[in-house]
Amino acid sequence: MITQVTKGIKISVNTSFEGTFFKNYKMHFAFGYTITIENQSKDSVQLTSRHWKIYDALNELEILDGEGVIGKKPVIKPGESHTYTSGCLLASPIGAMRGHYNMVNFSSTEKFRVYIPTFKFHAPFALN
């Protein structure tokens, strides 16, 4: 598990390899990830949007920006957490993701970023 804390918000990430398949005459490697966002601060916060950089071993970079996470903009009270699972497709059996969440502190109305640590993907057959 990979973890990182920014301004009292702890991000924990677990990854998994989901399998391979062909699409449009090309091999794809499917990976899953589960992220827990834990509010260790004294204020309620809301996740408003996300920014991802997705890398694969073939030097391909994909940048994704979007509202919330999996269709939600969770409000996380002090001492509570929000967990979700998502996934990505890579053109190679090895890759990584990193990024940040844009958040709002309900007490101060401050907007801030919570950094998501780099987490790696690898198909079990790709590493010794």
From TrEMBL:
Pfam families: DUF525. Residues 3-128 form the ApaG domain. This is ApaG protein. It comes from Zobellia uliginosa.
